[in-house]
Known about the structure:
- The chain is mostly helical.
- Helices cover 67% and strands 3% of the residues.
- The chain is elongated.
- The model is unreliable at 1-8 (pLDDT under 50).
Amino acid sequence: RFSGLKYKNKDNRRFIMAENKKIQIKFINTRIYIIILASLLSFCGLLNIMFFSSVIFATNFYENISVKLKYLLSAFSAKFNFSVADIVVFILITLLCFSCIRLVIYFIKSKKAGNIYLFTYRLKKTLLNSCCFLATAFMIFTLTFMPVYNRLGFMGYNNIHSASIDDGYLNRLAESANTLSEGVTDPDKAGINENTFIVTMNKLALHYPCLGDFYTAPKKSMFFAGYVPFTNEACYKSKTLSPSEIIDIMEGYACSSGFVSASDRQYIAVSACLKSDNTYLKYCGVLALINTINKNYPDKNITALLNRNVIKDIESLSSVSKSSYLPELNSIL
């Protein structure tokens, strides 16, 4: 018994010595982690300060660098029929579970060996790797998305003024809504395919070239609705596309074009739907426009001019339109 215990203690000491040697060799690499983290965070911090200090710098950086990176993200995402963002989430969850299980196993082994420092070292390395990953993700987000928060806005590019809301405007809008509601049927919804949204945005881009043309088909997602900056995708959750989700998808395309303010992206989404050749998308645009008027101009009683189907569809439109900019109907409808 004593002999067996003696050999067991020797094995534990050898294990501890071997692991300590590995730690002593690997511990030097901690400096590399610190250098990488400091470099990434300093680079991102400096860029963000410059973005928010100068509209000209943010605009030029977006047009010359961020747009090219978005083209690469769009080209990569377009190769898959599923949401790349969902796959990234699944991978992150898998890695998180694997790391937790590995830490628990290493904690048990280290406790049996009588040296808890082995576990703390493994924990420290896991945290450092996680920090480096998050810093890299933040750098990608900074390069592709942060300039848009202080760049020249869509209204500044196109000098758009809000349409005047008079009785004639309300009558034309209500008449269009009532007419479209009668023509919207299930085949119209079924007729929306992957290219419908891209064609719609490209049609709007003919009038506003600053929107670009790097759009990918919207993807059904388990986790996201709207725009996902890391993959440059417009996502939706439900199987049947409601008017609210249609507007969210179009707003996602506006964000992918670099216009993220509420007024900009909602004006783009509504204008794109109104110019669409698809009856259902055009109907969704009219609903969103009426919703905008109801939210921002409560004194305008347009509801009295609408039929029951339109009123019901507007009530189901969950998105609150904050944009006070209204497109001129004569040039769209």
